[in-house]
């Protein structure tokens, strides 16, 4: 007898197979039967990674990896700018880092445009 794995998203035990996929009726998550035994941190909510895949935490120092235009301003944040003491947020618009940038003030950034220093 084969055992059905719990849902990696919600942990429900009421999953069922459908072809080569497992399906969770409670949250609607679908995943491959080949990867059913291992859950990665990429799908976990609350894990924010930088452009290189390093996990970020509150208080980290990051470096901007490319020039970022600021909406409504003629200035841009230059690539290589270091930002100290970041705060991670649940930005609905994709901006998941709150920080203060020297010369610009308080700002929100996307984690895909920074790397951990």
Automatic annotation (TrEMBL):
Annotated Pfam families: YjdM, Zn_Ribbon_YjdM
Domain Protein YjdM N-terminal, residue spans: 3-32
InterPro entries documented for this protein: YjdM, YjdM_C, YjdM_N
Lineage: superkingdom: Bacteria
Domain Protein YjdM C-terminal span(s) in chain numbering: 48-116
UniProt family annotation: Belongs to the YjdM family.
Listed PANTHER family: PROTEIN YJDM, PROTEIN YJDM-RELATED
Protein name in the entry: Alkylphosphonate uptake protein PhnA
Organism: Acetobacter cibinongensis
């Amino acid at each position: 007898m084969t055992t059905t794995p719990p849902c990696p998203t919600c942990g429900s035990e009421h999953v069922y197979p459908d072809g080569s996929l497992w399906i969770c009726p409670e949250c609607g998550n679908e995943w491959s039967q080949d990867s059913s035994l291992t859950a990665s941190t990429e799908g976990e909510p609350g894990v924010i990674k930088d452009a290189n895949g390093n996990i970020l935490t509150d208080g980290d120092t990051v470096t901007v990896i490319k020039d970022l235009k600021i909406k409504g301003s003629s200035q841009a944040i230059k690539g290589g700018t270091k930002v100290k003491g970041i705060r991670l947020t649940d930005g609905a618009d994709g901006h998941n880092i709150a920080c203060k940038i020297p010369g610009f003030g308080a700002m929100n950034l996307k984690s895909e445009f920074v790397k951990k220093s």
